[in-house]
Design brief:
The chain is an alpha/beta fold. It contains 22 helices and 27 strands. Strands 18, 19, 20, 21, 22, 23, 24, 25, 26 and 27 form a ten-stranded mixed beta sheet that branches.
């Protein structure tokens, strides 16, 4: 699946034949990459397209219409960081070297889709990394400027020390030691601020810090100001950079409070008052240190995120007033399982986190097993009551391959959600060094989950109103698939459809959804509420020669006219399986069912399809509706789609409508139907008033 599901790949294809270009686009979409393709057939079109936002260029190395060398020349002339992949029919050393010498990043084989896909993903990821680096560099420069201004205005006395000497100090620092300006301390040794009795120990501390040893969280001593007056002080050290030089940031504070009281206040500041565990900010600082250690020193640490299963049901059983007592009991049991190397925190409302330092994968998994078993083994006392509580655990083995706090937290959260999704009382620990093993375990659990859902009717439908902008008051709903996890939680199809496709389960799911939709339409008709349902089907429907017969039998059994059932296929699937799509349209047309094309308009030549297939509805791809009021190009594209569809007698639907401004634009563009959260959200009931 795509590593960037939230982004569309803006792809420029230079190829002699549109069919070959569309095949490449379809292959990328089948692999889970959202593609916004453009094609250039001559030099003028290439110049125009390169003026638009582009991520990647796929150029046929043996193209006749637009030679490969000319493509590379124009890409270079554009001044953009734009990787070019040469597409070849076959590969030998000369072909490969010629492409690289011309400026291509790599060569992909047209008849090896997996290799082409890998090349696209690699170059896209590299481009994204370069763009991210440029953004980060700009942000770092801006952050440094802001930090410098904040440090100068801070009331905390702060100095920057390089090789024991002052290279920066703010006004509060100068004031504390009695200096008028930074020039008075520039180049002065930090030892000059320290009482004579502490000098030797402080020298040793500075030497250890210069070797890269971690600084102490707090260092107490007696300081001396410019006049030689002594005062008790504490120092806090942080590794930093100043104007590109590695240095130490030192915060020098007078000891205004009794040392014992100050320590108690600091301890309270770091703790969650309900559970007694560390609070989120304190835990995140420890996690950042662990991630830095993994990146710089090849350290190995484990992170676990723990959530009680069926939390909402537990709250209902014990009452909201006992929520804190429940979390306190859970935290107490967790704390009793941890050794000296582990620290625990309350990470969010009902999520606890554990950082296991210097832990390999086996140790991290062993701790997760102990936590899960300990939760399930005994009742939890909650005030005057008790309850059985199991836990879902997501974890990450923190190492050099995943040395990023954001990645670590995302993977751990994903593990918790996945564990809950397949029933709870389990753990999923992501080990970047053993991805295949973790992925196999994850897939096995999901396949079993899907098999159980098919056998025990756990797939459910939600319904989102599809509203006419042209005065039609008939009830029309989009059907949206959900998986009932069994504990009141609903799982979105994006979490399981890819696995279902890879394991041959999509055909069964299609039949289950279609059969249930026809049954619901029949119930609505008996209640004198005739309703049209739009139902998505997968590519598996095109390969199922008996599906048409099944639909006819279900329509007859429930007394439903076929015109109330609209089956939707993605444009990209139809384009690459045109003959099968035509046969499918004929099969359902025998029962008067309707056909719709969804995700319409993002192909290289979407309207070319309509010369071979006549659907009843076109659902405009949601990317055209996103931020519609601010995107003039998308507005023009929607007008073009609706105009050409109307000429062919085809109605149009715009989905994902989020605001009133978009509604106004869609109405004036001639769109027939709209749907989206701005109008009505999806729900298990069909209670929208279409009148």
């Amino acid at each position: 699946m795509s590593k960037k599901p939230e982004n569309a790949l803006r792809l420029l294809i230079v190829d002699d034949r549109v069919e070959d270009a569309e095949a490449i686009v379809s292959g990328l979409r089948n692999a889970g990459i959202a593609v916004r393709p453009l094609r250039a057939a001559d030099a003028d079109e290439l110049t125009t397209v390169l003026g638009q936002p582009i991520d990647l260029v796929l150029a046929a190395q043996k193209a006749n219409g637009l030679p490969f060398a000319e493509v590379l020349q124009q890409v270079v002339a554009s001044g953009k960081d734009l990787p070019v992949i040469a597409v070849a029919d076959n590969l030998d050393e000369a072909t490969y070297l010629d492409a690289l010498a011309a400026g291509a990043r790599t060569v992909a084989l047209r008849n090896k889709p997996h290799q082409l896909l890998a090349s696209v993903r690699t170059q896209w990821a590299d481009l994204d990394a370069r763009r991210a680096q440029r953004r980060l560099e700009a942000r770092v420069r801006e952050t440094e400027r802001r930090c410098d201004a904040l440090i100068e205005s801070s009331r905390d006395p702060i100095a920057y020390i390089h090789e024991g000497m002052h290279i920066r100090a703010n006004a509060a620092y100068l004031e504390m030691f009695g200096y008028d300006s930074f020039e008075d301390v520039e180049g002065m040794s930090l030892l000059d601020m320290v009482g004579p009795q502490h000098v030797e120990d402080f020298k040793q501390l500075l030497k250890s810090l210069s070797k890269g040893d971690p600084p102490p969280p707090r260092y107490e001593l007696e300081a001396r100001d410019i006049e030689g007056n002594a005062f008790p002080a504490s120092m806090e050290f942080t590794q930093a950079q100043y104007e590109g030089e590695p240095c130490l940031q030192v915060v020098f504070r007078r000891q205004e409070l009794d040392a014992g009281l100050a320590q108690e206040l600091e301890e309270l500041r770091q703790r969650d008052q309900v559970t007694g565990l560390l609070n989120r900010p304190t835990f995140l600082r420890a996690l950042e240190d662990a991630v830095d250690d993994a990146a710089e020193n090849h350290g190995q640490h484990g992170l676990l995120m723990i959530e009680p299963d069926h939390y909402q049901r537990l709250l209902h059983e014990i009452g909201l007033d006992s929520a804190d007592a429940m979390l306190e009991a859970i935290a107490g049991r967790l704390q009793g399982l941890l050794g000296d190397k582990a620290i625990a925190a309350r990470f969010s409302e009902h999520t606890l986190a554990v950082l296991l330092k210097d832990s390999d994968y086996e140790s991290t998994v062993a701790l997760a097993d102990r936590i899960r078993d300990a939760f399930a083994a005994q009742l939890f006392p909650i005030g005057s009551r008790s309850s059985v509580i199991t836990a879902s655990i997501g974890g990450v083995q923190i190492g050099e391959k995943i040395a990023s706090v954001a990645q670590v937290l995302a993977k751990a959260t994903q593990g918790v959600e996945s564990s809950i999704g397949v029933g709870g009382n389990r753990h999923e620990i992501f080990d970047p060094s053993a991805v295949d093993r973790a992925e196999e375990e994850h897939i096995r659990a999901w396949v079993a989950r899907l098999r159980d859902a098919l056998d025990n009717q756990r797939f459910v439908l939600h319904y989102q109103p599809v509203i006419s902008l042209q005065g039609d008051t008939g009830a029309v709903y989009e059907t949206l698939l959900r998986l009932d996890s069994g504990d009141g939680e609903l799982i979105m199809p994006g979490n399981f459809l890819q696995i279902a496709e890879e394991h041959g389960l999509l055909g069964e799911i299609d039949r289950r959804v279609i059969g249930h939709a026809i049954e619901v339409i029949g119930q609505r008709m008996k209640a004198n509420k005739p309703t049209t349902l739009l139902v998505k089907v997968s590519q598996a429907a095109l390969d199922d020669g008996t599906l048409g017969k099944f639909i006819g039998e279900q329509l007859l059994a429930h007394g439903v006219p076929g015109e109330y059932l609209v089956l939707q296929l993605p444009e990209a699937k139809v384009f690459t399986h045109l003959k099968a799509a035509q046969a499918f349209a004929t099969a359902i047309g025998q029962h008067d069912c309707r056909l719709a094309l969804e995700q319409f308009g993002v192909g290289l030549d979407s309207f070319q399809l309509l010369a071979h297939l006549q659907p009843h509805l076109l659902k405009i791809d949601r990317s055209f509706v996103d931020e519609l009021p601010r995107n003039a190009d998308n507005q023009k594209r929607i007008v073009e789609i609706t105009r050409r569809a109307r000429e062919l007698g085809i109605r149009t639907i715009a989905e994902f409508v989020q605001d009133a401004a978009s509604m106004s634009i869609l109405f004036t563009s001639g769109v027939d139907y709209v749907e989206g959260h701005f109008l009505a959200t999806a729900s298990p009931q069909m209670n929208y008033d279409f009148e």
